[in-house]
Each structure stands twice: as structure tokens, then as C-alpha cells.
């Protein structure tokens, strides 16, 4: 007769009950916790060594909970393993400086990129891995399961139902991964209301609600002032539109952050119209509601946008353009980073964005010796998703041109995602955009990583656009040809200086490299007069006053 198992199957649930009882002994019963009691609550429910998710998205930040976590007694709470999308606030770094946290797995650290690099080099931060968003979200359900999640929402009712509004972002995936593994969820909210406009997170998934003394911080991360777009960026945008968008008939796109993609958006109603491309390109996007897309939306180019997050000042405009954006029955928009990442990975034909460094083989990274910006969602969208099975003209054409397709799959037809990097040959402070060896190698050694943190691998990259021209890397038949094509557009960088003029000429003859002249573009035409909006005020006018830019972007 088989013996009955004596193993405990509800240890996590019992542990959570003990933590909640400890909180009740301090605070009493009830979900709503006063701001003055939050530090004691955190000390009661967080144990040393816990995996803790502190919601820090691209824009929405659980900033009050982050600040209160920094106030816990390090003798009571220490050795935390932070698992969070973004390292965006000073308090995110301060947790490590105070000894409260010791390890982090994350995706993006734009605002804190320099401080993070310093903290890793000094040994204050132990780096797990730099993830893409979907990768990190997936690990929330496998081996980086949060024991405690600290999230943010606009509103809660007295039962604890949460309304996350246009900046829903990561909240659903964080809460579900935590709560359905018997973890504890604490939400800071801007206000308590009698009835939320819609229930984004149900009350029984939330353990505590904290009315924050002030609204959570929102970063207008994707807002670019047209007044700061340069002629060099306009030239690259013109080349991209004529040499890539038009050539492949790209309808579904993800644009990365930056002035280069903002220039493309502002050229659609002008240069794009001149090229006769309306209706032939850029009908659907997976991206945040970029203000620089307003002229293209208003002039009928864009039919559909699904958003990763919101954008400060765009709320009313998005709400009033429900044919373009996703708006709920309550009349308010809702973003979802997980769904948008899936759309960006599988449903779009092209990713186009920028990077900090590209090496001789086409590998690129935003993790350098002095700045660890992370990757965000770029690796999900800046790759050729092998699981894709639906066809589109752009995908099929890029696959047909793949110079190494037969070596990989024989005669079997297969499409390919367009993955484009817009790169200045020299960046800020004359740092070369093309290098012989990525700084990511040094970061690997300093942080004890297994491999260099590469954002986009060279074999996924199909095009590089610089002021020198476009390199159509996917048309190359060998790694040697790809290196030659990269050298041809790398300008006077250490990589570009290795270019052989006769080799470059042969590549131009075969259409692997195209200069502005090859594309029929006069660089002298690359002027700001081509932009559909010259400044933020023009964007407000295009929107009919619906766009309400943050104060730092207003100069009138």
C-alpha cells in the first residue's frame, strides 16, 4: 500500500497569512492604509531576501511606495531581489545604497543609466540580467515571481478595486503573477472614490491600498519637441521613407523613442505626400501616443494605434480619437504593455529605432561603459520572430531578398521582419556610433554576466540608416559582405575608416548600399521647412487644442 505524502502543499499561502496577520497586529483590519503607516506595513509584509516588484514602468511610477521602501529599517528588511521593468527614480538606486536591496533584474534604466553603471561598478548593485519586457514578464511566472508587488493606480474604491486609466502599462501582469502565487499586492492610488470608472484590477487581487499624498509621477518619455529636430535627422528620415518604407510598402510599424523617428512622423504629411505614399505605408502602429504623430493622424494617414502606455498631455486627444486608439465603454483609454509587446513582436512588419553603439558585425547595444540604459521592448520588436506564420507584402519581400535564406532553409520560402537602426556616425560629445568592440563586453566582465548585453543582434538587423546612406544588410550573402556594408555607411568612425572605396562601389552596384544620391535625394532639401509641425505649439494647433503638453514643453 502506497504511503500518503506528508508534504505541505500550501506553504506559500500560510506564509502570506502570517505576513498579513503581522500587518493587522500593527495597523488593524481593513485594506486602506494611511500614508504615515506605510513604512511599518512594508516592514511587516516584506522579509529579507524577498523578490519584490516595485512598479516602475516607462512612465507610471509607484514613487510614493518606492520612497517609503527606502525608509524601512535595513536590519529588518534587507537583501531584496528587485524585479521591475524600469529603474527610473533616485529612490530605485537609493534602495541599494542603503543596503535594503542587493540584486536587480530589469528592462530599462534610461533616467538612471549613469548611476546604475556606477553602482554596479562599485559593487552596490548585483545585476541579474537586462531583459526585454516580454522576457521579464514571462519570468514573473517562472523563476522571478514577486513575493510582494508595489503598484500604482489612478483610483481605488473602498473595496480595493483599482482603476489604472490610460497608463495601465505593466500593472495587470505584475498583479496576476504575484497574487496567483499567493503573494501580497499593495497599491498606491491618487484618490479613493465611491465608484471607479471601470475595474482594471479586481479588489480580491489587492491586499492594501494607500492613498498617496500626491499623484504618482508620470514621465512624458515619448514627447519630442519638433523645434529640436536637426537637418541630419530629417535627411535620415527622408532616406528611410524613400528607401525602406516606400520600397517595401510597410504598413505596420513600431517606432522607437527618438528624434529620428519623430522626424519620420512629421514628414508623413509633407514628404510622404510628395512621394505619393498615403494609404501605402504607416496605417497601423504599436507605440505610445507620440505627439509628433498628431499631424499624420489628423491628415488621415494612421488608422490604428495600440499603446504600450499613455503619454502625459495626450489623454484628451486619445480619448477623442476612438477610431484610432483603443477606448473602453467608459470612454477612457487603456494601455497594456504586455499586449502591445506581443503586437510589436508578431503583428508589425518593421521596427525602426536608434541605439548607442553598433559594432563591425551589426550587433548593437544601449549598455555602455558609463550608461546602462537597458533595452525596454526593443529586442522583442528588433528581431525576426521565428514563430511568425502570417504573411504580408513587406515581410515576404524582405524574406525574398535575404541573401542567406537558402543556406538556412533551402528553397523553402520564408518572410523576414524589417529591423532598422537609425544611427548618427558620431553621437553626443563626438562619441562614435560605430565601434570595433561594443562596451557591452566590458559590462559583461564588470557585472559578472554570462554574455555581453546586446540589444539587437547583427543577424536580425536588416537596415542601417546614417547620413552616409542605407546599408541593406539582409541582402548580404556573407558576414564579410555585411561588415563591408556597415563600413560603407559608418562615416569617419574607426569602423568607417576601414571602408574600401572599390568594395563600396560594388555594393552600391548591387543595391546593398544606397547613398542619398542613389535614392534620388538632394541632401540640401533636408530642411526643417519639410516638417509638418515646427514646434510643440504647432502640434497643439494640429490637435484642435486637445493636446495639452506638459509645462516644460510650453514656451508660449
UniProtKB/TrEMBL annotation:
<protein>
    <submittedName>
        <fullName>Malonate decarboxylase subunit alpha</fullName>
    </submittedName>
</protein>
<dbReference type="InterPro" id="IPR037171">
    <property type="entry name" value="NagB/RpiA_transferase-like"/>
</dbReference>
<dbReference type="InterPro" id="IPR005777">
    <property type="entry name" value="MadA"/>
</dbReference>
<dbReference type="Pfam" id="PF16957">
    <property type="entry name" value="Mal_decarbox_Al"/>
</dbReference>
Amino acid at each position: 500500500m502506497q504511503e500518503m505524502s506528508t508534504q505541505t502543499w500550501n506553504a506559500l499561502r500560510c506564509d502570506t497569512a502570517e505576513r498579513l496577520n503581522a500587518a493587522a497586529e500593527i495597523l488593524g483590519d481593513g485594506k486602506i492604509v494611511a500614508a504615515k503607516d506605510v513604512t511599518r506595513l512594508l516592514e511587516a509584509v516584506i522579509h529579507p531576501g524577498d523578490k519584490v516588484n516595485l512598479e516602475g514602468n516607462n512612465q507610471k511610477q509607484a514613487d510614493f511606495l518606492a520612497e517609503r521602501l527606502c525608509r524601512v529599517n535595513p536590519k529588518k528588511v534587507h537583501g531584496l531581489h528587485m524585479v521591475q521593468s524600469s529603474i527610473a527614480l533616485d529612490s530605485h538606486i537609493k534602495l541599494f545604497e542603503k543596503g535594503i536591496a542587493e540584486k536587480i533584474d530589469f528592462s530599462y534604466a534610461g533616467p538612471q543609466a549613469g548611476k546604475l553603471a556606477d553602482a554596479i561598478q562599485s559593487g552596490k548593485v548585483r545585476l541579474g540580467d537586462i531583459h526585454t519586457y516580454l522576457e521579464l514578464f514571462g519570468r514573473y511566472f517562472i523563476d522571478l515571481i514577486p513575493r510582494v508587488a508595489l503598484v500604482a493606480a489612478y483610483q481605488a474604491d473602498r473595496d480595493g478595486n483599482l482603476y489604472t486609466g490610460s497608463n495601465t502599462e505593466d500593472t495587470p501582469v505584475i498583479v496576476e503573477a504575484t497574487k496567483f502565487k499567493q503573494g501580497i499586492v499593495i497599491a498606491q492610488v491618487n484618490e479613493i472614490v465611491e465608484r471607479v470608472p471601470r475595474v482594471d484590477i479586481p479588489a480580491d487581487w489587492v491586499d492594501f491600498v494607500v492613498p498617496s499624498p500626491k499623484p504618482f509621477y508620470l514621465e512624458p518619455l515619448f514627447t519630442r519637441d519638433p523645434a529640436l529636430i536637426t537637418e541630419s535627422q530629417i535627411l535620415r528620415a527622408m532616406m528611410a521613407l524613400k528607401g525602406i518604407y516606400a520600397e517595401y510598402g510597410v504598413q505596420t510599424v513600431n517606432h522607437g523613442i527618438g528624434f529620428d523617428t519623430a522626424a519620420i512622423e512629421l514628414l508623413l504629411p509633407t514628404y510622404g505626400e510628395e512621394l505619393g505614399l498615403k494609404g501605402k505605408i504607416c496605417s497601423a502602429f504599436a507605440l505610445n501616443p507620440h505627439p509628433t504623430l498628431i499631424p499624420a493622424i489628423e491628415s488621415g494617414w494612421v488608422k490604428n494605434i495600440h499603446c504600450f502606455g499613455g503619454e502625459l498631455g495626450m489623454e484628451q486627444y486619445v480619448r477623442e480619437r476612438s477610431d484610432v486608439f483603443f477606448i473602453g465603454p467608459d470612454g477612457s483609454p487603456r494601455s497594456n504593455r504586455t499586449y502591445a509587446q506581443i503586437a510589436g513582436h508578431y503583428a508589425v512588419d518593421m521596427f525602426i529605432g536608434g541605439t548607442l553603439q553598433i559594432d563591425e558585425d551589426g550587433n548593437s547595444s544601449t549598455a555602455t561603459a558609463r550608461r546602462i540604459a537597458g533595452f525596454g521592448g526593443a529586442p522583442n520588436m528588433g528581431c525576426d520572430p521565428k514563430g511568425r506564420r502570417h504573411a504580408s507584402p513587406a515581410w515576404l519581400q524582405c524574406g525574398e531578398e535575404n541573401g542567406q535564406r537558402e543556406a538556412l532553409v533551402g528553397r523553402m520560402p520564408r518572410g523576414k521582419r524589417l529591423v532598422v537602426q537609425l544611427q548618427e556616425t558620431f553621437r553626443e560629445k563626438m562619441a562614435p556610433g560605430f565601434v570595433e568592440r561594443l562596451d557591452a563586453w566590458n559590462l559583461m566582465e564588470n557585472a559578472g554576466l554570462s554574455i555581453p548585453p546586446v540589444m539587437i543582434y547583427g543577424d536580425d538587423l536588416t537596415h542601417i540608416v546614417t547620413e552616409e546612406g542605407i546599408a541593406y544588410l539582409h541582402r548580404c550573402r556573407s558576414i564579410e559582405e555585411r561588415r563591408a556594408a556597415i563600413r560603407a555607411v559608418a562615416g569617419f568612425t574607426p569602423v568607417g575608416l576601414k571602408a574600401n572605396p572599390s568594395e563600396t562601389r560594388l555594393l552600391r552596384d548591387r543595391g546593398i548600399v544606397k547613398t542619398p544620391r542613389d535614392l534620388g535625394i538632394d541632401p540640401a532639401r533636408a530642411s526643417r521647412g519639410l516638417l509638418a509641425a515646427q514646434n510643440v505649439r504647432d502640434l497643439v494647433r494640429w490637435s484642435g487644442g486637445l493636446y495639452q503638453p506638459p509645462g516644460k514643453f510650453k514656451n508660449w
